[in-house]
Design goal:
Structural class: mainly alpha
Helix content: over 70%
Radius of gyration: 31 Å
Number of helices: 15
Amino acid sequence: MHRAQLSALLSRIRRAGAAEAARATVAAGLTWQTCVTLLHVSAPYAGAVAALLVVETTVVATVGAAGRYAAGCLLGVLVAVPGALYAGPGMAGLALVVLASALLARHGFLGHHGVHVPTTAVLTFALVHGRHPGELVTHLAEIALGIAFGLGCSALLFPAVRVRSAERALEDLRLLVARHLDGLADAVVRRERPRTVLGPSWEDDLDTAPRRARTAVDEAHESMRWNLRPTARRRRWHLDDRVLGTLTGVAGQVTTTGRLLDTESAAADDRGFSRPYARLLRTTALCAYSCRGGRPHPALPAARHALARLGSPARDHPPAAGTDQRLLRPLESALTSLSAPAPAPAARSPRTLHPLRHTPRR
């Protein structure tokens, strides 16, 4: 009980961003103390601000933010130093530096860190023009220390691993696809429209869930890149893109099947087709819910056999044959996707001794 409460509390703290705030706080504090000790600066605000701004949720995002922050400051220095040395004094030189740095700040690579180009340029122009090169070097050293501590704290102080959220999103997608397939089976048996059984927003739900799962899986992959935590190296196969692609394709075929059932009523009135078709929908739901990587569900070959038997031309209902085939094509595509080999966890091969190699006894 206490362990469950502790895990729930930790998940709430993680969702609130407390871990990221703690890493940024530690990075800013270490930067401040290091600057005071090594650079002999009484108030190293520039370094602390740099450490706060580069720390992101994941290690990859922190590296990107640190690179953009450093690039913005470097561009500001490169623009301001020639302007302060060779441009005219006063407002003319400052206006030229501000114009050039503002144009560079709009570069797409820098993102929101482009604001550091004009700010660093104006500060550098003032220090170089006022003959204070030592203060400029100290200022840049503070920023470098802040970026370094931000990177270190983001990589070493329990970096985020968003595997569980991605697994929950995939589980929600599997459950949603299975429920919609069961709902379509109920609609066929009851001779009702899918909108009546599944609700008016069933198509929007099937369209939103794969996008939400894709976002969660991408965030999980990003959180595992360059991550030193052991959990980042485990369970990577759970989030394989082929599993998500299979579920997304099946969701699309479910949407197509529901739209066809909304327009085709002849097949629903044919009991010789509707009942086996409903059973096929429920079997497909079972196979879709078990799509987790590794071997497919054992009922999948039987479902494919039932599909082939249901679509055979030997049935005694030629007027509805075209409708039956249109309803069977999406299920055939879904079962083909579910039959594709999915990734399985890498198992360690047992160590075998060479048959001709002598093994000394201990």
